[in-house]
Amino acid sequence: MTAEAIEAGPRPGPSGGGDTPLRIALLTYKGNPFCGGQGVYVRHLSRELARLGHSVEVIGAQPYPVLDEGVPLTELPSLDLYRSPDPFRTPRRGEYRDWIDALEVATMWTGGFPEPLTFSLRARRHLLARRGEFDVVHDNQTLGYGLLGDLGAPLVTTIHHPITVDRQLELDAADGRRRRLSVRRWYGFTRMQKRVARRLPSVLTVSGTSQQEIVEHLGVRRDRIEVVHIGADTDLFSPNPAVAEVPGRIVTTSSADVPLKGLVHLVEALAKLRTEHPAAHLVVVGKRAEDGPVAQLIERYGLQDAVEFVKGITDAELVDLVRSAQVACVPSLYEGFSLPAAEAMATGTPLVATTGGAIPEVAGPDGESCLAVPPGDAGALAAALGRLLGDPELRARLGAGGRARVLSRFTWARAAQGTAERYREAIAMGRSTAKEPGRPAAPVVGSNHSC
């Protein structure tokens, strides 16, 4: 039996709480497994739902998610306008298939981000053509107009956190009127997401902090929002004494110039830290930005040899990288949950984390399972990192405390069980609504746009 299965406790049946396994359509408009949390969420939740005995089919667009054996993927392709190495490309005439493709390109041409809307329209068409094949549809934060109304099965939606938070942080960091206008146009889809979210009878989210943000930013009633914590793959992310610690190594996961991730503050902290710990160096799991605030700071402080970016590594390589670090760091200004924090803690690597958003819910109390610092404070980050680098006993104690916290609270097996319970509630609510005299059946709806 796996560590996750042991920690989750006995499973009441093949479907985790009901008599009959469910047929689940899991939608994801963006499934990049190497950037952002959406691809990670879809991969691990689908695997654990399948282990509970459910039939799970992931329906997604580019970048397609990486899924575990036994979980099928149905590709619902977009025009992939943001693909590497030619993002913001103009498709050839022969690539256009229908009016949705034309809408996608027109929105991009005018500076907007079209994928939540256009994926929802394609998903609606696909689901209605397959009416009766699914017991429940689970949307992974698309929140597009196409998912309102009858889809042939009740809808449950996950909102990891409102993208309006990302929008505001980028506006706060924007330099000049033109940049602010560009940010507002790019995030125009958040108006749609607000309207859709308010029409959802039932929403899933991943933390209490995200629940509060959904109430405040999206106007969803609190009694419609259920918290189901996600977690780490504690079999994969586990301690391994055979992996040697690299002196001075700090590991973080970040998109280089996304203000929300706080990497600019960590780079500044590293410059301060190296005056007392010359061996300190940073490995960033994410794409290097060739220009922008992070690249400028690296050059200004002469940190070219002290900051390394790695991208597209395997799961095994990622785990060994985290194990090799003396400290893991989450410098984000805000997170709706923070999978990198949970995964680092699961390996037994001591953590320095900010108190932004839901991070304290995951990382736990300062001095017990992490060292906690205020978001955006490079000096506090440097002090906490230096304290850990200089104290092997503290590293060992916090590493053990972090691992224990994740095993007791944040595993994918628990997440799958809680999510399956919400599916059954949605199905039951849909049946109840359908029986009300004089009312047609209504769909039951619930909820890292990233990368």
Gyration radius (Cα, Å) is 22 Å
What does the main sheet amount to?
A: 7 strands, parallel
Share of β-strand residues:
5-15%
Order of H and E elements: HEHEEHHEEHHHEHEEHEHEHEHEHEHHH
Helical proportion, percent range: 40-55%
The total of helices stands at: 16
What distance lies between the first and last C-alpha atoms, to the nearest angstrom? 35 Å
Quaternary class: single chain
Numbering strands along the chain, what is their spatial order in the largest sheet? 3-2-1-4-5-6-7
Task: Summarize the entry for a quick read.
The chain is of the alpha/beta class and 451 residues long.
Structure description:
- By secondary structure, the chain is of the alpha/beta class.
- It folds into two domains: 3-231 and 412-435, 3-Layer(aba) Sandwich (Rossmann fold), CATH 3.40.50.2000; 249-409, 3-Layer(aba) Sandwich (Rossmann fold).
- The chain has 16 helices and 13 strands.
- The strands form two sheets. The chain has a seven-stranded parallel β-sheet with strand order 3-2-1-4-5-6-7. Strands 10-9-8-11-12-13 form a six-stranded parallel β-sheet, sandwiched between helices.
- α2 crosses α16 (412-435), α9 (263-273) runs parallel beside α10 and α9 packs across α14.
- The protein is globular.
Features:
451 residues; alpha/beta; Rossmann fold; seven-stranded parallel beta sheet; 16 helices; 13 strands; disordered N terminus; transferase; EC 2.4.-.-; glycosyltransferase; Glycosyltransferase family 4 protein
